[in-house]
Design goal:
Elements lengths: L10 H12 L6 E5 L6 H13 L14 H8 L5 E4 L8 H11 L9 E5 L7 H12 L5 E7 L7 H4 L3 E4 L5 H12 L3 H10 L4 H9 L1 H11 L8 H38 L9 H48 L6 H8 L11 H9 L3 H20 L4 H11 L2
Parallel strand pairs: 1-4, 1-5, 2-3, 3-4
Protein name: DNA polymerase III subunit delta
Pfam family, one: DNA_pol3_delta2
GO biological process, one term: DNA-templated DNA replication
């Protein structure tokens, strides 16, 4: 099975990466960009696997069968280093370690591949650590950076990389992947893919976790409860609680497993006090988990706001269709908009149509701008999340 099989709807990008992997002199630095859910990290790992693939035949590189492909995709290949962060930023120490590793010769492959999965989460000082290594890479070293857009990376970096942009795959392709790879029932897979707006990872979680689907549904229905300022404040609190619950659900089991694995590897006693050196390592792990939890809540808030934005996106689509004289029914609207009336929250179509009829597109656009402004504030400033959400909720009245 080819390493490219899960890159749904990315034909042109896959073809360029495939040709590069077959070349004896591939470009030494790449920047893979695309919105969340487009599969940047998956594309980077597939490209890395094809670069180090053991097959001699050029056309077969990226076979997905050999040991090099398997270990790359599982994150254990000694010649492929993947760095991402579950904290707020990639630290300068992590960047320096990556540069040191980049100067090692490949142990068993043609290339040493260095992947930075969150190139947009580096401060300028940290990015400058990578600059010289990317500008003048060691022999047989290839860099792959991933970011939402070229603008998220310093111009000094992106000018030295070959940039490829991935697109969000069609809903149908994501649903087909969930059915084929994860054994999800087709109807549920399509519902999850549409609700996730083609984000493959989120679609998989929605399809496999009923609790995640319930939390998303509660978020999308929040605008129906916005009657006055008091209701807006309550809705903001609910939004934060739902995001925190989703973050806790994602991290809790993992945190417990990580601590158990650490204690096991340290040979910790089953009862009684831990020796001081062990306590220090456990504290370090718990601090890392707290930092990861903070970022996780921020990421889940951003996702919750994206889901909330989908509500107003659907409302806007229905309002524009009505203004065009096509009404809100399937056939007439599709005839007028070339089939573009498909809603993200299709199960709420009736309620959304009633909501849309009570407002105008200009007001809906203003509400969408308000949500996007809060998304930017939450990810770029130290604003108190609840205060920002309350101000946003009041602006949605």
């Amino acid at each position: 099975m080819s390493v490219w099989v899960d890159l749904q709807g990315q034909g042109p990008v896959v073809e360029q990466l495939r040709r590069a992997a077959q070349s004896s002199t591939p470009t030494h630095a790449w920047l893979l960009t695309g919105p969340p859910g487009s599969g940047r990290s998956n594309a980077a790992l597939a490209f890395a696997a094809a670069l180090v693939c053991e097959r001699e035949q050029l056309a077969e590189r990226g076979c997905g069968v050999c040991k090099a492909c398997h270990t790359t995709l599982s994150g254990t290949n000694a010649d492929v280093r993947f760095i991402a962060t579950e904290k707020t930023t990639i630290t300068i120490e992590e960047a320096r370690e990556l540069v040191r590793k980049a100067h090692d010769s490949p142990s068993s492959s043609r290339w040493r591949v260095m992947i930075v999965g969150d190139a947009d989460r580096m401060a300028e000082r940290t990015t400058n650590v990578l600059l010289k290594a990317i500008e003048e890479p060691p022999p047989r070293t290839i860099w792959i950076l991933c970011a939402p857009s070229p603008a998220d990376v310093l111009v000094t970096i992106r000018s030295r990389c070959r940039t490829l942009t991935l697109r969000v795959p069609p809903v149908e392709d994501v649903a087909a992947l969930l059915v084929r790879r994860d054994g999800i029932e087709p109807g549920l897979a399509l519902h999850a893919a549409r609700a996730a707006q083609s984000h493959i990872g989120i679609a998989r979680r929605l399809a496999s976790d009923a609790g995640a689907r319930e939390r998303r549904d509660a978020i999308v229905r929040l605008p129906f409860s916005l009657r006055d300022v008091s209701a807006a404040v309550r809705a903001a609190g609910s939004l934060l609680e739902l995001a925190q619950a989703e973050a806790a659900s994602s991290n809790e089991e993992r945190d417990v497993e990580e601590k158990a694995n650490l204690l096991r590897s340290l040979g910790a006693p089953e009862t009684g006090m831990l020796p001081p050196p062990m306590r220090a390592q456990v504290r370090a792990l718990e601090e890392d988990q707290k930092r990861r939890s903070k970022r996780s809540v921020t990421d889940q808030l951003d996702r919750a706001l994206t889901d909330l934005l989908s509500f107003y996106r659907d409302v806007l689509v229905l309002q524009l269709a009505a203004q065009g004289g096509s009404g809100v029914g399937h056939s007439s609207a599709e005839a007028s908009h070339g089939g573009a009336l498909e809603l993200v929250n299709e199960s709420l179509r009736g309620d959304l149509a009633e909501f849309a009829a009570r407002g105008r597109p200009e007001a809906t656009l203003a509400r969408m701008d308000s949500i996007n402004a809060v998304r930017r504030r939450l990810t770029t400033t130290n604003v108190a999340p609840l205060l920002a959400l309350e101000a946003m909720a009041v602006s949605l009245l």
